[in-house]
Write a structure and sequence with these properties.
This protein is an all-alpha fold. It has 17 helices and no strands. The longest helix has 32 residues.
Length: 414
C-alpha cells in the first residue's frame, strides 16, 4: 500500500500530496466543502419552499455573503496574526452546530423563514474567517514550486465536493426532506474538524510564529490593501475576480427557479445541474493540476472569464434540461480555469506573511456576488429569470473584454 501511494505522489498531478499537513488540509477541505455544497442546495430549496419567492432566494444568499464582504479584511489580518489551525477548528465546529440546529427545527416543525436568514448570517460569518486561514495554510504546507499543483488539487477536491454535495443534497431532500440534508451536513463538518485537529506545525514551519505582531489589526489591514494595490499581478487577478463575481457567478442564485419553473425537474434536477457544473470543474481542475505551471496564467484567466459570461448567456435561453446540463459542464470548465488561476496568481505574488490578507481580498472580491445575487433576484422579479441571467452574463463578458484590451500587463502574468 505504501508503494502504491509513493507511486501516486510521483505523478505530476498529485505531487503536493507527499506533504502530510497538505493531505490533512485536503481531507478537511473536501469534508467541509461537501457540507457547504449541500447547504447551497438545501438552504435555497428550503427558503423557496417556505416563501415561494425568487427575491427571497437572492436575499438569503446575499445575507449569507454579507459577513464575508464586510469582515474579510479583518479575517485576513487575523489569519496573518493568529493560529490558522485554531481558526479552522472554531469556525468548522460552529458551522456544524448550526446545521444540526437547522435539522432540529425542521424535524420539530418549528422552522420559519427568519431561522433560515439568521443561520445564513452565522454560516457566512464563520466562512469569512475560515476561508483566508485555509487558503493561506495551503501555501504554508508545500514549497512554492508546488503551489500551482497544490491549488489545482484543491480545486479538484473542491469540485469533487461540488459533484457529490449537490447530488447528495438533492437525493436526501427527495427521500427525507431538508432536515435530513442538514443532518448530513453537520456530520461532514464534524469530519472536517477531526482532520484539522491532526495538523501539526513546528515553530520553524509556522509562518505565524515567525512574524511578530508589530502593528495593530487596523494597520495590518491597511498594509494588506496597499500591498495588493501596488503589486500589479495581484491587482489584476483581484479585478478579474471582482467582475466575474459581480456579473457572472450570481446566476446560480436562480437555479431553483430554473429547476422548478422553467425546466420542471425539481430539487433533484437542481442538484444534477450543480453536479454537471462540478463535472466540468473537475475536468478543469485536473488540467490545472497537471499542466497549470506551463500556462500563461494571466491570459488563460481572462479568456476563461470571457467565455464564462457567454456560456451563462447560453444557459439562460435553454428550456431543455439535457442541454442545460451540458451547458453547466462548460460553466464549470470556465469557472475553475478563471478562479483557480486567480488564486494561484494572488498567492504566488504574495509573501507568506501577507497571504492571509491577500486571500481575504480574493474572497472579498468574490463576494461582490452578494450584490449580484440581490440584483439578479430583483431583475428576475421584474423581467423574468431568463432575461436577468442573460443580461448579467453579457455584462460580465463585455467587462472582461475591456480589461483584456485596456490592461495589457494582466494577460502577460505568468
Amino acid at each position: 500500500m505504501r508503494d502504491l501511494f509513493s507511486a501516486l505522489y510521483r505523478i505530476r498531478a498529485f505531487e503536493a500530496l507527499r506533504y502530510r499537513n497538505y493531505r490533512l488540509i485536503s481531507y478537511g477541505q473536501i469534508s467541509s466543502n461537501v457540507g457547504t455544497w449541500m447547504d447551497e442546495v438545501t438552504r435555497g430549496w428550503l427558503i423557496y419552499h417556505l416563501t415561494n419567492s425568487a427575491l427571497d432566494l437572492g436575499l438569503v444568499k446575499g445575507v449569507q455573503l454579507l459577513p464575508l464582504l464586510f469582515l474579510s479584511p479583518v479575517a485576513g489580518s487575523v489569519a496573518d496574526r493568529y493560529s490558522r489551525k485554531k481558526i479552522l477548528l472554531i469556525t468548522q465546529s460552529i458551522n456544524g452546530a448550526v446545521f444540526a440546529s437547522m435539522a432540529f427545527l425542521i424535524f420539530t416543525n418549528l422552522i420559519l423563514p427568519w431561522h433560515v436568514y439568521v443561520t445564513a448570517v452565522i454560516v457566512g460569518l464563520m466562512q469569512a474567517f475560515q476561508q483566508p486561514a485555509r487558503s493561506a495554510m495551503v501555501s504554508d504546507t508545500v514549497p512554492l514550486e508546488y503551489l500551482t499543483n497544490a491549488i489545482g488539487l484543491n480545486a479538484l477536491l473542491f469540485n469533487l465536493a461540488r459533484i457529490v454535495g449537490p447530488a447528495l443534497a438533492g437525493a436526501t431532500i427527495a427521500l427525507v426532506g431538508t432536515g435530513g440534508s442538514f443532518t448530513i451536513q453537520s456530520i461532514f463538518l464534524l469530519l472536517a474538524t477531526v482532520w484539522t485537529v491532526q495538523i501539526q506545525y513546528t515553530k520553524k514551519s509556522d509562518p505565524i510564529a515567525k512574524e511578530p505582531k508589530k502593528y495593530s489589526l487596523r494597520s495590518n489591514i491597511i498594509e494588506g490593501w496597499r500591498f495588493a494595490l501596488a503589486t500589479k499581478a495581484v491587482h489584476a487577478g483581484l479585478l478579474c475576480n471582482m467582475i466575474v463575481s459581480l456579473f457572472i457567478v450570481p446566476f446560480t442564485t436562480l437555479l431553483p427557479v430554473f429547476a422548478r419553473d422553467i425546466l420542471g425537474v425539481g430539487a433533484q434536477g437542481q442538484g444534477f445541474l450543480l453536479t454537471a457544473m462540478g463535472v466540468g470543474a473537475l475536468i478543469s481542475s485536473c488540467v490545472i493540476a497537471i499542466s497549470g505551471h506551463k500556462m500563461v496564467r494571466g491570459q488563460v484567466m481572462l479568456i476563461s472569464s470571457l467565455f464564462y459570461g457567454l456560456v451563462v448567456v447560453l444557459f439562460s435561453v435553454s428550456s431543455w434540461f439535457s442541454f442545460s446540463a451540458f451547458v453547466m459542464i462548460l460553466v464549470g470548465l470556465c469557472h475553475v480555469h478563471a478562479n483557480a488561476l486567480v488564486n494561484t496568481i494572488v498567492q504566488t505574488y504574495s509573501p507568506a506573511h501577507f497571504r492571509g490578507r491577500t486571500m481575504a481580498l480574493f474572497n472579498m472580491s468574490q463576494l461582490l456576488s452578494t450584490a449580484g445575487s440581490m440584483v439578479i433576484g430583483s431583475l428576475a422579479q421584474t423581467l423574468g429569470p431568463q432575461i436577468a441571467v442573460a443580461s448579467m452574463g453579457l455584462m460580465g463578458a463585455l467587462s472582461i473584454g475591456m480589461m483584456y484590451y485596456l490592461m495589457p500587463y494582466a494577460k502577460s502574468v505568468k
